[in-house]
Design goal:
alpha/beta, Nucleotidyltransferase, domain 5, 4 helices
């Protein structure tokens, strides 16, 4: 039986909008990989999405994943809201265009390649892996 891949992601912003960073930790058995980056003039939600996107883009083949995020926006968006957004021409319940459409489209495409179980973890609450990806996201900001 193959092991499952665990992915932990986080985004951060200094100012919202402002300088932003994202971080991801991928754990497969004994292997750990950390990735991170940053962008100017972005938002916290964009960085939360970017963390998941970059983690999934780093994979070479379809994978069974347990993915942890402290962003309700990301988790609910991809598991609940996106179905109606697509049905409604990428508009929200108020008939307004959804924010970050390009990122959602990219994430939706990447998600379709994998078997992902989505999990939410309370941020800044002592969860070891979540604390680490928060550090990585802040590193992404500091290196801009």
């Amino acid at each position: 039986m193959s092991e499952k891949l665990f992915i932990y992601t986080d985004g951060a912003c200094s100012g919202n909008p402002g300088k932003g960073g994202w971080g991801a930790l991928l754990i497969y058995g004994e292997h750990r990989k950390e990735i991170y980056g940053g962008e100017y003039d972005t938002t916290n939600n964009q960085m939360e999405l970017k963390a998941v996107i970059e983690a999934l883009k780093s994979l070479k083949k379809p994978t069974s994943i347990d993915l942890w995020t402290d962003s309700q926006y990301v988790k609910n968006g991809i598991t609940e809201w996106i179905t109606n957004w697509k049905k409604n021409g990428w508009k929200n319940a108020q008939k307004k265009p959804i924010k970050n459409k390009e990122l959602w489209l990219e994430l939706d495409n990447l998600v379709s390649l994998h078997d992902i179980s989505w999990h939410w973890v309370k941020g800044h609450n002592g969860h070891t892996e979540n604390e680490r990806v928060d550090e990585l996201a802040r590193l992404g900001i500091s290196e801009l």
